[in-house]
What we know:
Layout: E1 10-12, E2 22-28, E3 31-36, E4 40-45, E5 52-54
Antiparallel strand pairs: 1-2, 1-5, 2-3, 3-4
Amino acid sequence: MNDFLVPGDFVRHPVQANWGLGQVQSVIDGKITVNFEHMGKVVIDGSQVELVMVT
């Protein structure tokens, strides 16, 4: 899951739509750090949450 994500990619959280658009900051050992518009910086366990890539 989320293996395709790299820093700079834009994503949305599949359940927390109110967080807004997020930009991937880092992907390390399955932990994805994303800076969301309305939530700020969040570390997400990539094995638990499948982020939605925005093109």
